[in-house]
Amino acid sequence: MTRVIKYIFYDILRTRFILLYTVFLLVSTFAMFQLDSDTGKVVLSLLNIILIVVPLISVVFTTIHFYNSYEFIELMLAQPVNRSVIFLGEYLSVAISLCSACLVGIGVPALLFGADERAITLLFTGVTLTLVFVSLAFLASVLTRDKAKAIGIALLFWFYFSLIYDGLLLWVVFSFSDYPLEKVTLALIALNPVDLARIIMLLKLDIAALMGYTGAFYKDFFGSHAGIIFSTSILVIWIIVPLMAASRIFSKKDL
Amino acid sequence: MNHLQSNPMILFNNVCKNFGKLKALDDINLELNAGKSYALVGPNGSGKTTLIKSLLGLVVPTTGEILFDKKSIANDWKYRKKIGYMPQIGRYPDNMTIGQLVDMMKNIRGDEDHEKVDEELIDAFKLYKIYEKRMHTLSGGTRQKVSAALAFLFNAPVLILDEPTAGLDPVSVEILKEKILHEKRRGKLLLISSHILNDLEELATEVVYIFEGKVHFNNTIESLKMETNEKRLGKAIATFIRQKELLASINQ
Amino acid sequence: MNAILLSVLLSAAPLVLLSKTIVVSRDGEVNSLKKAISIAAPGDTLLVKPGIYREGNLLVNKSIVILGEGLPVLDGENKYEILTINANDVTISGLKFIDTGTASITDIAAISVSDAKGIKIIGNTFQDTFFGIHFSNTTQSLIESNQLESDATAEQEIGNGIHLWKCENITINNNVIKGHRDGIYFEFATHCLITNNRSERNLRYGLHFMFSHNDEYRNNFFVDNGAGVSVMYTKGVKMINNTFKHNWGSSSYGLLLKEISDSFVTGNRFLENSIGIYMEGSSRIELTDNLFYRNGYAVKLQASCDGNTFTHNNFSSNTFDIATNGNLVLNTINSNYWDRYEGYDLNKDNIGDIPYRPVSMYSMVVERMPTAVLLWRSFLVFLMDRAEKAIPVLTPENLKDESPSIKPYDLI
């Protein structure tokens, strides 16, 4: 496994994309810290990057990488190498590269400018969302042979979770605004990793106070042990389930 | 069942593969024995490559099973240690150099016995001279040379060569043929698909003819020639097909 | 204030000539306050030496001065109201009151004053008292430079720091009140002057008043109170140069104005409150020269408000500038500075050439459907707010600042 991962890593690093991505994150984070001395506000601005840019980059990079590695995968599969090793190797390499880009790009400036619990939660959500969207992108990649189609599906995942889903959620809230919706929306939030990450982050930012009763309810819930276990396991499920599905499809996929 | 007695190295049991509505492999039953050399022939799209890929596990059969050394290859990968494979179109990571590719293959496959690698073709094709070239800069012919060199690199007891001579210059064809014959003499199982039947006649002793996903003939080249009363393999196959068609129309 | 002092002096004048000083000391001839009060004549001064005095409830029914030396302690032993005053012209100074009793029905206080005038409570310390200073039906008095601190954790465990009921002409100056239910509580207290106080970490409100007309609040500091400052059902209030800081919580305000009319809110600073000012049913309030900085909502203006004017205020780094729940525009918002203003000033007169709309679309959505707040900071909301800026649909068309200032005003 390590030998396979080594070559995939080598291949990823050679494209320099990860390097560019890291530099992009570094520059934006540094700029934000420099422009605003209030860590809380910087964390809020960074939240936008984490919620929108990080998932987008993750799906696009993963899908393109998967198709660019098709030859490599084909070559490897004719060799005495386990299919799931190849698949996991690809996943781990992509996930580790993207996560370290995120950790370095956001974490290093945050450390230099004084990291607190909020910055650490931010990094946690960044890494988690990266893992979730890499999983989803792998699923998109094994669903079809066509690169353009796969990128399309992957982008659709991104678009759905960052925009369409929230539109539907708003519609639900609007249609049933006469009912107590806290528990329902909590469940609906859990069905979207981006929303879940956003809520966890907002609660850490002490902005729940502005969120009225809903905010208080969420703060109580996510502040409790059960809430922490719940949200973490939901996010882990969001990583594992698409990955397992992708792995199953890949194990039966014809090359 | 006579193949139990003969103890084949590779056995296809009722293997079917559908791509959507297309039946690429239609109930294939085939045994391939150690020490023999098989020519896999058939028209374009008859299922040759699918058959080879399913043997390698690249394509997963819809039904049926493939046994390698009496063990099913489904979800197995270790059996591929015993296979050297030369694909019809060698596709390699674009940014790797030939040298890196060879090193990587050695790294991944050559586990315990490094000294056993067989670099004869690398030398013969003078690939070491262009070790620094990246894969995407190579011509089709050079790629084929690389594919061939990699297939023979690990001294595998089973060699699967998909159109090995296609795109090679005459000198290289001869080098490769020499190498194949050499391995054949060493008692390896060879499965060679090619359109160039004259090449096969020299390299193979057995012929497997598949058409529309079915095996229509599996015997020695000699017996095919005797059956059809032809002297050359190409003619023999052509006659065999005509006889078959005739038989089919009579039956109808 | 001078008038009050003068009147206090004049009323006490005839007594001063005859007054004597009684020394109270634990090991002296007069070893209890009870004894001292009983032997004192109006106009006398009781000089209390250091020590702990546990005398249950003391009734002060004469116009005397009780003066502590070296902060003697009057201990209520968690049972008693300590001083009950029902005479005029009593001065209490330099004492430390600790551990009064608690009750859920009666208002037990360290110092309870009723039906009196000319009372002065100066430079005392209160620690863990249920109510600190409790005035009822009292006029022309002074509460100055006292320190009140309790550490209750629930509202029902504790009373108010300074509590006034039906009072008039009271001056409350330079006190520090911490950890009570309400820091300063007024009900029917009129014509009072509240200056330079610091009300901090009180469980409910830093300042709370109802039906207390014509009071003036200057230079006070309200910080970290459970629900900020709440003022209701009052007219003629002046709130000037106060600071409302870090009143943060889901039902917390810097300043809650409910049914307030004909008042001034000028030169105040609203810093880091979840809602800077919450206005409900309020009319004809002039809000000028205030600073709103880093609040969740700088101003929440309910539709029940009318005739209020916002001018010359600075709004910066607030999450929402102004939120409202209606489309009626009955208030005037003009010539303020908004850090979010994206307009331009071609003629360089420091007034933006296009109006500023301080109400964001998303805040309107949340007003109508509070649950929608959970979409806050999502990409969707970002896009919706942008779209609304281009083509206003939900936000009140006329709620806008026609002449926004390009530069922040130079406020204190």
A few lines on this structure:
With 255 residues, chain A is mainly α.
Task: Indicate the topology.
The complex is a heterotrimer of chains A (255), B (252) and C (412).
Chain A: H1 2-14, H2 17-35, H3 39-68, H4 70-77, H5 83-112, H6 117-143, H7 147-175, H8 182-190, H9 193-204, H10 212-223, H11 225-251
Helix pairs in contact in A: 1-5, 2-3, 2-5, 3-5, 3-6, 3-7, 5-6, 6-7, 6-9, 6-11, 9-11, 10-11
Chain B: H1 2-6, E1 10-19, E2 22-32, E3 37-41, H2 48-56, E4 63-68, E5 71-72, E6 83-86, H3 98-109, H4 120-124, H5 140-152, E7 158-162, H6 170-185, E8 189-193, H7 197-203, E9 206-211, E10 214-220, H8 221-228, H9 233-251
Parallel strand pairs in B: 3-8, 3-9, 6-7, 7-8
Antiparallel strand pairs in B: 1-2, 1-4, 4-5, 9-10
Chain C: H1 2-16, E1 21-24, H2 33-39, E2 45-48, E3 52-53, E4 58-60, E5 65-68, E6 73-75, E7 83-85, E8 91-93, E9 96-98, E10 109-114, E11 120-122, E12 125-127, E13 131-136, E14 139-144, E15 147-149, E16 162-173, E17 176-178, E18 184-190, E19 193-195, E20 198-200, E21 207-210, E22 216-218, E23 221-223, E24 229-235, E25 238-240, E26 243-245, E27 255-266, E28 269-271, E29 275-280, E30 283-288, E31 291-293, E32 297-301, E33 309-311, E34 314-316, E35 320-324, E36 332-334, E37 337-338, H3 361-368, H4 379-390
Parallel strand pairs in C: 1-2, 2-5, 3-6, 4-7, 5-8, 6-9, 7-10, 8-11, 9-12, 10-13, 11-14, 12-15, 13-16, 14-16, 15-17, 16-18, 16-19, 17-20, 18-21, 19-22, 20-23, 21-24, 22-25, 23-26, 24-27, 25-27, 26-28, 27-29, 27-30, 28-31, 29-32, 30-33, 31-34, 32-35, 33-36, 34-37
Description:
The complex is a heterotrimer of chains A (255), B (252) and C (412). Chain A is mainly α. Chain A has one domain. Helices cover 85% and strands 0% of the residues of chain A. Chain A has eleven helices and no strands. Chain B is built from nine helices and ten strands. Chain B has a six-stranded mixed sheet with strand order 6-7-8-3-9-10, sandwiched between helices. In chain B, 37% of the residues lie in helices and 24% in strands. In chain B, helix 8 (221-228) crosses helix 9 (233-251). The radius of gyration of chain B is 19 Å and the shape is globular. Chain B has one domain (37-44, 81-251): Rossmann fold. By secondary structure, chain B is α/β, with parallel strands linked by helices. With 412 residues, chain C is mainly beta. Chain C has one domain (100-390). In chain C, the strands form two sheets. In chain C, strands 3-6-9-12-15-17-20-23-26-28-31-34-37 form a 13-stranded parallel sheet, with no helix packed on it. In chain C, strand 1, helix 2 and strand 2 (45-48) form a beta-alpha-beta unit. Chain C starts with a helix and ends in a 22-residue tail after the last helix.
